[in-house]
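Worked example 2:
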Amino acid sequence: MTRLKIPLLLLASWLIVAFGQSSWIPFFGPLAAAAGYALFWSAALSSKRPFLLAFLWFTGVQAVQISWMSETEYMGPFIWVVYLGLSVAIGLQFALLTKLIEMGRPLSVMGCLGLAGAWVLLEWARILPCTGFLWNPAGLALSATPLSLQMASLVGIYGLSFWVVFVNLAALRALFMRTRNAAILWGVAALFPFAYGLAVRSDTSGSESLSALLLQPFLLPDERDLFPGRIERWVPPLSQWDRILELVDSERADLIILPESSVPFPAFAAFYPLDLVETIWEQRFGNAAVLRDFPKLGGKDSELIQGQWRVSNAFWMQAIANHYGSELIAGMEDADGERRFNAAFHFKPKENKTERYEKRILVPIGEYVPLKNWKGLSDWIGEQFGISDSFEPGGEPKLFTGLVPMGISICMEETYSGIIQESCKRGAKLLVNLTNDGWFPRSKLARQHFDHGVIRAVENGVPVLRACCTGVTGAVDCFGRILAQSRTDGADALFVRVPLKSERTPYSFWGERGILILSCLFVLVGFALARNKESRLTFS
C-alpha cells in the first residue's frame, strides 16, 4: 500500500466513524456500520504500528463523539481531565481489539464472530468503573436510520455493536481474500439489519392512546439554584413556579410530566408562604380554585411554622394534578433522614398518597463524590468541582401505577439498557424519562441523550416519553418513530397523543444476557480454533 494511500484511508475512515451517528451526520451511520472500521484496519494492518495507530485513531473518534464533555461553563476545567481520560481509555480498548485482529490473521468466519464478541465484552466492561459509562457504543451507527434501528428489538444495543464489528471484519476479510464467497458474506451481513427493518410490522393505528403534556421549563443550573458569583442569573422560586403554571395551562392531558430537578428545594421542604401561593393561584385560576384544588393542610407537604402555614413543592404538584384532573410525574430531590435521593414522584388527582422512585445510577461528580474509600483523593475531587455531599442510589426498579403501568428512569439511567429492560419485565407499558441536560449547554449532549431514548423504545417495544429541563423533550412510539420533539433553545410545553401499543420483543425477553452469553461462546470457540491452524483454515 502506497504511503499516500494509508493516511487517506485513515482520514476517510475517521470521518465516517466519528461522525456516523444520528446526532452528527446520519448518512455516515450506514457507511460506518458497513465498512468504516474496515477501511481503517486495511490501512493500519499494512503499517508498522497498528496498535498505536488504532489507539490514536479511536481516541480521536471518541474525542468527537463525546465532545459535549469539553464544556466547562458549569463543570470547570477539571472536566477536561475526565473527557480526555475517557477518550484515551476507550481508545485503548479499540487498540486491543486491533491487536487481536492482527494476531488472528488470516480471518475466518468464526474468527470474525469471536472478535466481534470480544468487542462486546470490552464495551460491556465500561459499566464497571464507578457507575459506568455506556454513552457511546459502536452500535449507535446502526441506530442512525429507522430501518437498521429495528434490529435492536432482537439483540439490543450490544447486539448492534456486535453486528457493526462483525460486518466490518467481514469487509476486511473480503478485502484480504478477494473471493466471491467472502464478498457475498459481507454484503448479506451488511444488508441484514435493513432487510429486518423492512420486515418488521410497524403499524400503531387503532391502538389505545394516552394524551401527555411534556413540560420543558428551560432553566439552566445557575438560574434554578443560587451559584456563588452568579446571583444575577438566579430566577426566584416563585417566578420559576409561575413559568411552570404558564406552561402547564396550554393543553388538558391525561398525564403531565415535569423533568428531573424541575424545581429548587426538596419535594417536602415547607418553603413557600401559603398566602403568597394562594394569591398566585387565585390570580391564575380564580377565587374558587384554592378551595377546590389545594390539598388539606397538615400533611407531609405543609407545615405550620411560627404561626404561618408554609407549603412545599409537593403541595404545588398535587394542586396542579387536582386542578387539571391529570396524573402528574415530576423530578425532585427528597430525603429519608440523612439520606438524600434524586427522585421522581407520581401524583394522582384528589389522592394524598404519592409514589416515589429513587434514581439508581448516579452520575459521578454531578451526584456523588467518587472514590470515597480514598478520602484524600475524593476530597480533592470534591474541591475541584465544588461538591461536598452525595445522593444515595435507589435500590430497585419501580413502576408507577395509574392510567398505565409506567417504568421510570432519571437522566443517565436511560443509557443503561438493562435498567430499562428490568422495568419492562415488571410490566411497564410506557417508559418515562426525566432529564436535565443543562450542565453541558450548546453541545451535542441533549441530542445524543435523546437517541438513547429512541433505542430503548425499540429494544423493549414500548413507547417513551421524555421531559427535559433543558434538552430534547419528546415522545417516541414502540418502533422508535419520533411523534413529537421540542425545540432546544427555550421553554416549551409539548402536547402529544402517544399510541400505547407495545410488543414483546426478543430483547425484552433475554435482555443483555443473550448477546453477552453468545459473545462469550464465540470468543471461546474462536480462541480454540485460533490455536489449531488447520481448524482455523477450515473456517476460512
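The chain is about 45% helix and 15% strand. Confidence is low (pLDDT under 50) at residues 534-540.
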